Structure to design on (428 residues):
């Protein structure tokens, strides 16, 4: 306000001086040319004063806006196209430790020792194409601390559309990241523990699955010896029994291999996976459970299903959880009415391709009010239940970018449905 008044005073004084000098020089005796000259001078002074006032207003509003940027807790800085810092707010001073006058003029990436999630050329290309970029960076502060930063970039262009400057708005998510990692770790450990518990529940089936082919190997071996022990050894029959031995030996070693992968504790490994192979693996372990519970089983595997990006062991765990829950629920219905169906298929709703896997049973189902609680941790209606199976299944499926849901069948029983996004094939 004081500046505005000062400008007006200076403008007014200049006009008075012009009038004064006009009167002193020309007195009463003034011609048209002299009058015009002083009118032009006065007009020039007025225009200059008005322009200065406007300029002053714009500068003030810019300064106010820059002050506003100092109020936010985010670290905000602006860098030109050569990565030189031109603006550095109070939040940036606090987060990184360099005062404004030390940061301005330095190269941002060098000062902050920025670690980018992808090649800088790709990031820049995206920024220039869309005008914005968002992602996680690692920055080093003045004290040498490494911080995980959520960074949002906006590109400013000149009138001709050429990149002029980039504004970075950064927030420190180091603590959040650490907590997230600890949570993932805890979830992975819990998933492992429940997997081992589930394997405990399957002990009888597993023992049978390994024992049966081993017993067959012994029988085949004895038969082979008999064929060879004949007066004229029957080589063809002996060969056939040895082949049987190999088939049975492989089966036993397959079961052991599946079990070892289920029992191993490792970080999830997301690779191209065929959901039908996951179901096959699980059936190998569930075979005996199905027959001893007198459950009729219907398998409908979709043909030529596209791959999904997933961790085979984790997806096996989900399938085992769902199937065992179904078997346990069906203990409440008479033997002739226990039906389990596992179905895989491709679903294509409005171009959103997903692979679905359904586990459908003919058990008693649940009270409709408890449907939303089934996936909550520690929700269990079983006396010895942990209530973790479905909650872990949900976190596994969500970590795969998919969804899991439960519904009551019209004809009774429940249907759990898992949807997993398919991998985009190149060119599709
Ligand atoms: P738990 O098996 O230890 O109880 P889960 O998270 O696997 O833990 O399941 C939670 C609850 O969901 C079960 O206690 C049961 O009440 C219900 N449930 C799960 N699957 C079925 C099913 N197929 N039929 C009926 N109820 C089910």
């Amino acid at each position: 306000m004081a500046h505005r008044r000062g400008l007006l005073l200076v403008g007014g004084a200049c006009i008075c001086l012009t009038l004064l000098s006009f009167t002193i020089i020309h007195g009463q005796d003034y011609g048209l040319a002299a009058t015009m000259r002083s009118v032009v001078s006065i007009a020039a002074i007025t225009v200059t004063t008005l322009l200065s006032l406007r300029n002053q207003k714009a500068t003030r509003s810019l300064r106010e806006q820059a002050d506003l940027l100092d109020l936010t807790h985010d670290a905000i800085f602006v860098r030109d196209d050569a990565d030189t810092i031109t603006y550095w707010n109070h939040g940036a001073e606090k987060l990184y430790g360099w005062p404004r006058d030390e940061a301005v003029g330095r190269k941002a990436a060098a000062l902050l020792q920025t670690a980018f999630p992808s090649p800088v050329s790709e990031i820049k290309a995206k920024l220039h194409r869309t005008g914005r970029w968002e992602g996680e960076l690692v920055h080093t502060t003045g004290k040498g601390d490494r911080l995980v930063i959520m960074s949002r970039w906006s590109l400013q262009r000149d009138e001709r559309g050429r990149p002029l400057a980039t504004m970075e708005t950064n927030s420190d998510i180091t603590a959040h990241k650490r907590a997230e990692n600890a949570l993932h770790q805890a979830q992975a450990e819990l998933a492992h523990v429940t997997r081992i518990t589930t394997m405990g529940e399957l002990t009888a089936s597993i023992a049978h699955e390994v024992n049966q082919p081993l017993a067959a190997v012994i029988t085949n071996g004895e038969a082979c010896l008999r064929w060879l022990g004949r007066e004229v050894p029957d080589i063809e029959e002996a060969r056939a029994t040895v082949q049987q031995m190999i088939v049975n030996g492989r089966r036993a070693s397959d079961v052991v291999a599946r079990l070892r992968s289920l029992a191993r504790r490792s970080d999830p490994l997301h690779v191209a996976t065929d959901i039908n192979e996951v179901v096959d693996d699980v059936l190998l372990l569930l075979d005996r459970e199905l027959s001893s519970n007198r459950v009729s089983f219907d398998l409908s595997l979709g043909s030529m299903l596209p791959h999904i990006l997933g961790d085979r062991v984790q997806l096996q765990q989900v399938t085992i959880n769902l199937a065992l829950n179904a078997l346990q629920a069906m203990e409440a219905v008479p033997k002739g009415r226990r039906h389990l169906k596992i179905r895989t298929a491709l679903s294509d709703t409005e171009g959103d391709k997903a692979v679905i896997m359904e586990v459908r049973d003919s058990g008693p189902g649940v009270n409709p009010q408890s449907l939303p609680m089934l996936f909550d941790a520690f929700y269990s209606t079983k006396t010895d239940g942990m209530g973790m199976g479905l909650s872990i299944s949900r976190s596994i499926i969500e970590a795969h970018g998919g969804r899991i849901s439960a519904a009551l069948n019209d004809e009774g029983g429940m249907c759990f449905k898992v949807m997993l996004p398919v991998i985009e094939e190149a060119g599709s």
In short: The CA atoms of residues 361 and 400 lie 25 Å apart. The chain has a mean pLDDT of 89. The first strand starts at residue 75 and ends at 80. The pocket of adenosine-5'-diphosphate is lined by residues 321, 325-326, 329, 361, 363, 365-366, 374, 379-382, 385-391, 414 (CB under 6 Å).
